[in-house]
């Protein structure tokens, strides 16, 4: 691995949160999957990190959903090694906030409609500055 400058080490990749605009045609969730596995797989389509996914990443996501489904439907209960392997695969897809932080990726949240308009804030600041 080559030397990385301090600036490169501290840089963060930013991406918008929410569904990427140019997703490829993707297979639907397998109807035989456990509902939690299907929901997880479908949630990736609505997640900002998916903007960086290549076809191989989507194949890994299908594999993870299939594995998750088998774990959830197992009559013997979850196998520790299988759950650890599944968590590792899910982590490689940057599916949690912690995974994205470790990879130095930040999803920028869309502003909610409940924010105070700047003009209202400016008037309030002006009033407080003149003792109003």
Report what the structure shows.
The chain is mainly alpha-helical. The chain has 6 helices and 2 strands, in the order αβααααβα. The chain has helices spanning 6-10, 35-44, 55-73, 80-92, 97-102, 118-129; strands spanning 13-16, 105-108. The protein has a two-stranded parallel sheet. Helix 2 packs antiparallel against helix 3 (55-73) and helix 3 packs antiparallel against helix 4 (80-92). The model has no long low-confidence stretch (mean pLDDT 78).
Shape: globular
How many helices does DSSP assign?
6
Distance between the termini: 60 Å
The low-confidence parts are none
Amount of helix:
40-55%
Task: Please state the CA-atom Rg, rounded to the nearest Å.
Answer: 21 Å
Q: Total strand count, please? A: 2
Assembly of the depicted chains: single chain
User: Could you report the average pLDDT, rounded to the nearest whole number?
Assistant: 78
What order do the SSEs take from the amino end to the carboxyl end, as H and E?
A: HEHHHHEH
* Biggest beta sheet attributes: 2 strands, parallel
Give the helix/strand class: mainly alpha
Could you tell me the strand content as a percent range?
5-15%
Concise structural overview:
The chain is globular. It has 132 residues and is mainly alpha-helical. It has six helices and two strands, in the order αβααααβα.
What labels would you give this structure?
single chain, two-stranded parallel sheet, 6 helices, 2 strands
Fold blueprint:
Elements: H1 6-10, E1 13-16, H2 35-44, H3 55-73, H4 80-92, H5 97-102, E2 105-108, H6 118-129
Parallel strand pairs: 1-2
Helix pairs in contact: 2-3, 3-4
